[in-house]
Amino acid sequence: MEKIKMYQVDAFTDKLFSGNPAAVCLPEKWINDDLMQSIAAENNLAETAFIVPDGKDYEIRWFTPTTEVDLCGHATLASAFVLFDVLHYPDSIIRFHSAKSGLLSVSKNEGMLFLDFPTDVSELAKEGEKITVEDSLGIKLAKLYKGRTDYLAVIDSEESLINLQPDFTKISVLKARGLIVTARGNTVDFVSRFFAPQSGINEDPVTGSAHTTLLPYWSKKLDKNKLIARQLSKRGGQLFCEYKNERCSIGGKARLYLTGEIIME
């Protein structure tokens, strides 16, 4: 009987039942894609990460309940937390290899974990796309950009973002992984929400990978490289970010919620 060790971690928070929950599975070797997708669907969390040792490094893949994604920040943070804090990884930096996103590393410094991710490059979207996104959100946009996988919609205020009532059916047909909506923050540098019904997640609690798109925009807008961000989902989460041109540093804490084993009969 094969067993796969699994951990559930709340990422980008120092409190249980907040931040973004992710499952981290550690099979001894890669299992087939359909089985990984079935496990992710059974977990029914925003993301399930699978990590397999590769020498001192690890290979990593991420699945929502419905599909595999190219990059996931909070599940990578959760994976590093498990390796550092539960399995006592001896070094201060863990290197993850992703076939779709290249080399990703996570470092630990005084209890904080920092993702080192590639910066996304976004371009101003076409007027027709802007009108379509405005219709899905029921609000006028200041700007709309399209990154490698997501749309980035800029609106006027944190209050508007809090009160936003998106139409998930309309968002689900956008040709993107998801839709980031952002505004300048009242008490932090910027705030955001992330909607991805087309990826099986109506609203993601905290989306580390979205900040690879958010950081270049807000760094230029606010003329600063170190920024504090908050994602305004119901669970909420805070991120400590640094824009480094081609790379982004995205920092946060995590808490272990449960440990278990998947029984593969």
Q: Label the structural class.
A: alpha+beta
Under CATH, the homologous superfamily of the largest domain reads: Diaminopimelate Epimerase, Chain A, domain 1
CATH architecture descriptor name of the largest domain: Roll
Strand portion: 35-45%
Number of strands: 18
Query: How many structural domains can be distinguished in the coordinates?
Result: 2
Which residues form runs of ≥5 with pLDDT under 50? none
Order of helix and strand elements from N to C terminus: EEHEEEHEEEEHEEHHEEEHEEEE
How confident is the prediction overall: mean pLDDT?
96
What does this structure look like?
By secondary structure, this protein is of the alpha+beta class. It folds into 2 domains: 2-119 and 251-264, Diaminopimelate Epimerase, Chain A, domain 1, CATH 3.10.310; 123-233, Diaminopimelate Epimerase, Chain A, domain 1 (Roll), CATH 3.10.310.10. 22% of the residues lie in helices and 43% in strands. It has an 18-stranded mixed beta sheet that branches. It is globular.
Summary of the model, kept short:
The chain has about 260 residues and is α+β, with helices and mostly antiparallel strands.
